[in-house]
Write a structure and sequence with these properties.
By secondary structure, the chain is an alpha/beta fold. The protein has helices spanning 2-13, 43-63, 71-78, 89-103, 119-142, 166-186, 201-215, 230-244, 269-285, 299-312, 326-334, 349-367, and strands spanning 106-111, 148-152, 191-193, 220-224, 248-253, 290-295, 317-321, 338-345.
Length: 375
Amino acid sequence: MRTRGILLAALWLGPASIVIGQTVAPILPPSTSVAPAFPTPSGGARVAQLGQRTLLLAQRALTLPVHVWPMTRLAQLIAHGEPIVALPPAGAANAAARRAETADVGVVIGRLSWELRDVWSVRGAERSYAELIIRLAAEKAERPNADLAVSLDPEALGLRLRGESPERRESLAKASIIRLARAAAAGGLPVELDRGSGAALEPTVRIAHAVARELRAPVRLALAARYGRTDEALRGWAALARELGVPLGVRLVKGSFIERESPDALNERGPLLAHYKELITLALQNADALDVAVASQNPEIFEHARRESARLNAPFTVHVIRGVNPELQARIRAAGKLAREYVSYGVDAPVMGLMEMYTNARQRRALKPSIDDID
């Protein structure tokens, strides 16, 4: 318990790339090593980011008990069954590899963070991702049949830096993700880009295009049905796949955050699910260029995907969050459609969960007078 406490404190204070009692040599060649390149801000941006850093450290301190049993169980219940695999990259990589090997399912692992807004936290996130990639590549070398992939979050890698211009934020996030994607490719690991808020949609799509052009490999992009303009992004992604001659992946999600401020956000359950189905159909119509994955724990969405797949003679798979709606996941597995599970690691995972609950509750209160069936 004492060692665990030391580890938790270290993770709270800095990047989650700590190994106790062992040294693991990087297996990636020196040319693919990742060195964070985020300049320290000055002036007003420095003041703003120092404030964000202080706030994040306070949130981490308040959520430290969540990492200790029995609070871990409570956190899992709040997250609809999703477990936090492990805090440091070494443990997370090992747990993901063992899961992929024993459960006969692919595992995608990412560092769950809440829109990191200061350069010190973003640097820590990149170092943590880099360490995770090294560890996953080592696990992959030992278990060559294990389907392991890494999911990168642009909003945790510079896209939300406070006090910087949108162009500057996007440039820094793109450079960070390309560094990490190169390292992942060198380690034989597929790369996915996670979805973000409505404001992050276009920058994330542009970054994904840059990564796909850089790697010339089947990068997977998450797109959310919550936004009306996702259709255009999906068509552009399919067009890029045809241009490159590479079957790019797409992961279609509902979108977990209610967004009153986003002009094209669908926050009512009926229209949101209808658009989700339309997006699935559109993706399957482009299955000649796209590797289509539907990421849902909703039986209605799963059945729609099955029907459209049969009608269009287009393949699809299902990606799920580990532990959420196990009954439906068993049905999906029995149907031969379960391809990958998503798991999270990192000290900020509880902060993310709490912020999602708080943000959605606040948005629900604001929308309640005009919308009854909010989702």
